[in-house]
Amino acid sequence: MCGIVGYIGKRDSQDILLEGLKKLEYRGYDSAGIAVFTKEGLQISKSKGRLAVLEDKLKGEPLAGSVGIGHTRWATHGKPSDLNSHPHTDNSAKFSVVHNGIVENYLDLKDELAAKGHVFVSETDTEVISHLVADEYDGNIVEAVQRAVARMRGAFALGVLTEFEPEKLVAVRFASPLVIGIGDGENFIGSDIPAILEHTRNVYILNDGEMAVLTCNAVELMTIEGATISKEIFHVDWDLVTAEKAGFDHFMLKEIYEQPKAYRDTMLGRVSDDGKSVDLKELSMSDEYIKSINRVHIVACGTAYHAGLVGKSVIESLARISVENDVASEYRYRSPIITPQTLVIVVSQSGETADTLAALREAQRNGARVLAITNVVGSSVAREADDVITTWAGPEIAVASTKAYSSQLIAFYLLGLHLARVLGTQEPAAMEELITGLNALPEQVEKILEQAVVLKQVAESISHHRSLFFIGRGVDYAVAQEGSLKLKEISYIHSEAYAAGELKHGTLALIEEGVPVIALVTQETLYEKTLSNIKEVKARGAHVLAVANSGFEGEVAKSVDEIFAIPKTLPILSPALAVIPLQLLSYYASLALGHDVDKPRNLAKSVTVE
Ligand code: F6R
């Protein structure tokens, strides 16, 4: 996804911009560029490809100057190309714009500007913004940006420079994240905190409809209508080091190994000292409200959606409330039945996913209360939801989500126990047993991680296949779906997840000699049924790897080719363990195939467009 960085100060801006953009690489991008005020005026250098390509270009033709903006682009309007890369400018080349998001009415604006004589060189919506700002300019860049923004529809974060007022950097946030970094004699903008963290820990987090005018020595905050606002400075207390690889070959592997800590951190302070109950004190919803909930919607995208599938089982079994799951991009278009008695839970690692945010707003518009499960404090989802359960997984850099997913599961367990306590739906002994099981999970994950080498060998053999299947029943099916997504996204091997009992209704036709099938067998009440399904695929030549609960590992071993046993836990908690070997399998398969594990093709970490 696109990244923005901007600098205004006394130092040379080129390297600050490039370094800032490097910190945003994890978001995914296909081209990069910077614009700097040089002695010759506002100059732009940009190119398709990785930042290294831009760096090479700048080695030959550096842009010297102490004010600039930079961008990494993830193509939406127009293919990745030098011309479509940001920053963009207008025909006078006196204005320059970097932009994240989408301007929905850009074609109408483009036609109108073209009729006035503006000539466009790219396919992008962003180029239209630079022409629009130029067209609106009559000596005051702040007012020109305000007038331009008032005419734009969509989602955008902007950084704008003009040669006419080189002492100013204008920043706008409208439904796409942007932060302002406050320095000493210098100031910054960034679409994400890591972009500027090397220089300052003091930031303003802009809200939708807010803008900032930066000079070397001041930051003026206002609404996009021009009303002055004041904000508290947010002090970032986490370190860049936590966002580095810490000795692992890839961020993904590091993040897989961080899961025991992520589990402990997410549980910290939420389980009572006597270990008998869970109290999510951060929730503002009253017990009366909880008692009035008659249905829950869990809405999310991708991996977070898969966490929600487990969440459904957790809430239904612990709190006995009916739960529906929705993919966020579908939710508001299916006209869901939402009432004030519907609790809508949105799940988002980044807290910036456009579809999830739109679902949140749709739910609130319909009078529902929204509870967010997110990993990013201060994210849009966190700020707009009525209640938030933060997953304390720490920054997740690899595009493929691992520790954020599993911490979302922990959040669901805690929520299920919280609701069950208020509703009285579980016996005290059952609650205690669950909490004991929860507390044991971090150590059990450590045990699984000690066996990682076994999975490396399995992954290497899987990597020679073009297609494979994941099967399971109940929560095992939910985990199977996450395992399948993980494998697809980083190894590019086709796979499908199936409810084990559903295979024979069509998909069994695809099972032939040697096809790998990964079977999840962790549910005591279902394992005999799953074993029957395993026999169905074995009879057609499948090569079966079972991920099984060690409680019945012996039985399962008789029916499969390979087995990976996870420590014994309660059935509802097993997803928090069973997913770990699947993450490792995907990681090692991707590695065996020589792919870019942390930055898989075509994907972005934070999806801030619909
Ligand atoms: C896959 C992955 C994605 C995200 C999805 C939602 O590994 O990470 O499927 O889960 O894009 O992102 P968030 O959770 O940030 O809303």
Structure explained in plain terms:
- With 610 residues, this protein is an alpha/beta fold.
- It contains 19 helices and 24 strands.
- The chain folds into 3 domains: 3-244, 4-Layer Sandwich (Glutamine Phosphoribosylpyrophosphate, subunit 1, domain 1), CATH 3.60.20; 254-446, Glucose-6-phosphate isomerase like protein, domain 1 (Rossmann fold, 3-Layer(aba) Sandwich); 451-592, Glucose-6-phosphate isomerase like protein, domain 1 (Rossmann fold).
- An 8-stranded antiparallel β-sheet has the order 3-2-4-1-10-9-11-14, with helices on one face.
- Helix 7 packs antiparallel against helix 14 (428-450).
- The N and C termini lie close together (12 Å).
- Bound molecules: fructose -6-phosphate (F6R).
- Residues 301-304, 348-350, 353, 356, 400-401, 489, 606-607 line the site of fructose -6-phosphate (F6R).
Strand order of the largest sheet: 3-2-4-1-10-9-11-14
Assign the CATH class of the largest domain.
Alpha Beta
The CATH topology label of the largest domain is Glutamine Phosphoribosylpyrophosphate, subunit 1, domain 1
**Helical percentage:** 25-40%
CATH homologous group name of the largest domain: Aminohydrolase, N-terminal nucleophile (Ntn) domain
How much strand?
15-25%
Level-2 CATH architecture of the largest domain: 4-Layer Sandwich
Bound ligands: fructose -6-phosphate
According to DSSP, the number of beta strands is 24
Radius of gyration: 26 Å
Major pleated sheet? 8 strands, antiparallel
